[in-house]
Every structure is written in C-alpha cells, then in structure tokens.
Design goal:
four-stranded parallel β-sheet; 14% strand; 40% helix; 2 domains; Rossmann fold; alpha/beta; 428 residues; binds nicotinamide-adenine-dinucleotide
Length: 428
C-alpha cells in the first residue's frame, strides 16, 4: 500500500490494446514504473520505439514516457516477478458458436500464476460474465500459490474498463471506475492503486457485482439501440420518418434518452458483451430475453439496408445485380479505423451476394482483410461518387463533405441520417 501511495510500485499491464495502452500511459504519467506485456511482437517493438499504434494515444504522449524509462513493453512474462500489481486487459471475443471465448484471460492468468508472489495485486479489466474472477482466475492463482492466502498475501479485483474509443471529453483518468474485490482487503488494495490515477473509484460489494455492472451498461446500450432500430422498421411500414420522431421525442427534458438507428451494431463491445451474460444465464436455465431480442433486431439491420439499396435502385429502373455500389465508411463508427463487428462489412457481403459490384471509401481504412472479405479503398472519391449507381452511407466520418456527396451521387441510401442534418437542397 505504501508503494502505491508513493508511486514507487511497479505496475504490469497484460494486453496492450485499446484498453491496456491508455491505462499503461495513465499509470506511467502518474510516475509509476510501468511494464506492458503483449504476445503481439509488433506492438512490443513499436511501444519500445516510443510509437503508439492506438488512435486515442498520441505518439507524442508515449514517446517521452518511453524515453524516461517509465513505460516499456515486453513479451517475457518472467518480468511479472518484479511487478507489485498487474492489470489484465486481454480480449474477450466470442467463439464461432457465439459463446464466450475466455481463453485469453486463462492464458494471462496462467502466466501471472507462475509468477505470483506475496503482496501482488491482480486486477481483471476485460469484460466478462459474472463469476469469471472467482471461478476462473482465483482458483488458478491459488493452485500455483497454495501457500499464499487471498486477501492477506495476494489481492484480486475486477474493475471494468469504460473507454469509448475516439472520445476526448471522457478519458481513462476522469471516467469513474467501478471496482469489486474478492475480499475487503482486496478492494482496499485495488482502490489504493487505482485511486492514484483515476479521479473516482466506485466500490461495489464483490467481483461478481463489478462484472455485472459492465454487462448492464453495455446491455442497456444494445437493448436501446435494438429498440430504435425496431422503431425505424415500424416507421418504415407506417410511412413515417423515424429520425424526425426520435429527434422530437428527444426534446423531452426528462425520462427519455436519445439513441439512433443505423446499419446495425458494431465494435467489439456492444454486440458481444451482452452475449456473455445471456450465455451465463443459459447455464442457469434462464433466457435473457431482452438481450436475445435486441440481438435479433440489431443483426437484422444489414439485411434491411441491403433491401433498401435494392428498392432504391429498382425505383431508378436498375437491378442490384450488376450495379456499382459505393459504401462510404467501413469502420464500425465515425472517426475510427476499427472494423470489428462492423455492420458495413455485413452489408458489403450481402450486396456482393446479390451480384452488386461493391467498392468502398474510408479515410481511416486504406485496405482491409477481414472475415474472408478483402478490399482496397477507392483511390479517387469524386470519381467513385460520380460512377456509382448507388452510394450507401455506412459510417458518418466527420471528414466527409456531405453537401458535395449529396451533389455528386446519383442515388444515396443513408443508414446514418448524415444528409438529414444538411439544409434542404434549394428549389430550382
Ligand atoms: N476497446 C474498447 O472500447 C473496450 C472498452 C471497454 C472494455 N473493453 C474490454 O477490454 C478488453 C480488451 O479490449 P481491447 O479493445 O483493449 O482489445 P485489443 O484487442 O485492442 O487488445 C488486447 C491485447 O491483448 C493482447 N493479448 C492477447 N492475449 C494475450 C496474452 N495472453 N498475454 C498478453 N497479451 C495478450 C493482444 O495482442 C492485444 O494487443 C476486452 O475484454 C474488451 O471487451 C474494451
């Protein structure tokens, strides 16, 4: 605790991705000596050269920390031996069967268990189902440290990450951080360390509660996005403009929170995390109905938009089969390059299946290979806009010149309502 308070403790971060790298820099900036562990040699090399590979963490922020020796990376887990605390920030994806894949957590835990030593604090940050810390992590740590007692000799917490990539107002430091400990002493140790670098630590009664808080937050978003997507489908049938209705409802100063419809859910959190909870509930013979329903609506959206493209072309006397369709934006949300679970890719695949010639433009994604799809960004946006039979706005990146796009495109299907925000085209 004293080493946390005077910041002389050595902090290890296992997994240096979107979550781990910002966390590592926050600890290093506060004066801790930080060592990041990653199995990806490219990330280890880049970080040790003082370069960032995550958009939210500028190289100018990382370089001085590396130069000062306060931050470095390694693939050698033996260095865990010298760490007073270690935070686990490894991926928690889904398997092909849509079940949780906690193999990365298990691998990281095995490494930590091999180097567990008295006084060590272990904090899991990866999003996962309630029970992971107590059922998966603690038994593995105990197996290797059977002479060590949890809450006395070593300390375990769960503290979910809330980072929103691309966001500048809420950062790792100023976003309140929920934390649950395996014992009271574990929570005290976790809060003592994180309290040095995070403005507000919010304690909860157990690691399971902390795990559930994160799943509630992301399920809340998935369900509400599912609801507005269904409102879009309903309004379509009623001949109403869903965005007009949502914008008007959002003028209510209380009791309404605005969510917007779109091409479907993307990113590796909102589409994935609720399924961790529904999987856990299935093991308890309970169906998490809201999660299943929201997932069903949200995953149906790419098909809905593909049909919209087909109908729009049809109105112009064209078949989707053989038409040239240009997708604007393949990232899952604006102003990032992240393609994980991006619904734009589902739309691309569905359009190709129906015989369309699909090209894309994305200022953040020069080329990609993802889940069997591969493509290269069109080199000349103006030429691509002029020659496309239909332009589909799949990601509303801030860089796009929307009036120019509206002017240049023969036909637009706008899944993000990007053009809706423009002044109407003046009458001739
Ligand atoms: N990205 C977000 O916006 C976000 C937000 C909140 C929570 N989370 C959660 O945080 C966790 C990490 O997400 P992320 O976006 O940082 O993932 P990421 O893929 O960007 O980074 C994970 C890193 O862990 C490394 N890794 C994998 N196995 C490892 C191992 N055994 N040892 C060391 N390193 C290993 C990978 O090489 C990668 O660099 C996930 O559980 C995710 O759900 C992410």
């Amino acid at each position: 605790m004293a080493r946390f308070a005077d910041r002389s403790a050595r902090v290890g971060i296992v997994g240096l991705g979107y979550v781990g790298l910002p966390l590592a820099t926050v600890f290093a900036e506060a004066g801790f000596s930080v060592v990041g562990f990653d199995v990806d040699g490219r990330k280890v090399r880049m970080l040790n050269e003082g370069a960032s590979y995550i958009e939210d963490v500028p190289t100018e922020q990382v370089a001085p920390l590396v130069a000062d020796g306060r931050l470095r990376a390694t693939a050698d887990f033996a260095e865990l031996e010298a760490c007073d605390a270690v935070s686990i920030c490894v991926p928690t994806p889904l398997r092909k069967t849509r079940d949780p894949d906690i193999s990365y957590i298990m691998q990281a835990t095995e490494e930590i268990a091999r180097h567990l030593h008295p006084g060590m604090l272990i904090v899991l940050e990866s999003t996962t189902y309630p029970g992971t810390t107590s059922e998966i992590i603690i038994p593995r740590l105990k197996r290797n440290g059977d002479d060590l007692t949890i809450g006395e000799d070593f300390f375990v917490c769960f503290s979910p990450e809330r980072v929103d990539p691309g966001r500048e107002d809420w950062t790792t430091k100023n976003t309140p951080k929920v934390m649950g400990g395996a014992t009271t002493a574990c929570l005290e140790a976790g809060a003592a360390l994180y309290g040095q670098v995070i403005d507000t630590v919010v304690p909860v009664s157990s690691t399971e509660s902390a795990e559930m808080v994160k799943l509630l937050e992301n399920t809340f978003r998935a369900v509400n996005i599912g609801l507005v997507n269904e409102v879009l489908l309903i309004c379509d049938k009623l001949g109403l403009d869903a965005w007009e209705i949502i914008d008007a409802a959002a003028t209510k100063p209380f009791g309404f929170m605005k969510f917007t419809p779109g091409p479907g859910l993307g990113g590796h959190c909102i589409p994935v995390d609720p399924l961790y909870l529904s999987w856990k509930m299935k093991t308890l013979n309970y169906t998490a109905r809201f999660i299943e329903l929201a997932s069903e609506v949200n995953t149906s959206m790419p098909r809905y938009w593909t049909q919209q493209v087909q109908d729009a072309l049809n109105e112009h006397g064209k078949a989707l089969n053989g038409s040239t369709v240009l997708l604007l934006g393949v990232a899952y949300k604006k102003d990032v390059s992240d393609l994980r679970e991006s619904p734009a890719l589902d739309i691309m695949l569905l359009l190709e299946e129906k015989g369309a010639r699909v090209a894309y433009h994305d200022p953040y994604v020069p080329a990609f290979q993802h889940d069997g799809l591969e493509s290269t960004c069109v080199p000349d946006l103006d030429a691509a806009l002029a020659s496309a039979d239909c332009v589909v706005i799949t990601t509303d990146h801030s860089d796009y010149d929307w009036p120019a796009i509206r002017e240049a495109a023969a036909l637009v299907v706008d899944t993000r309502a990007a053009l809706r925000r423009l002044e109407p085209v003046p009458a001739e």
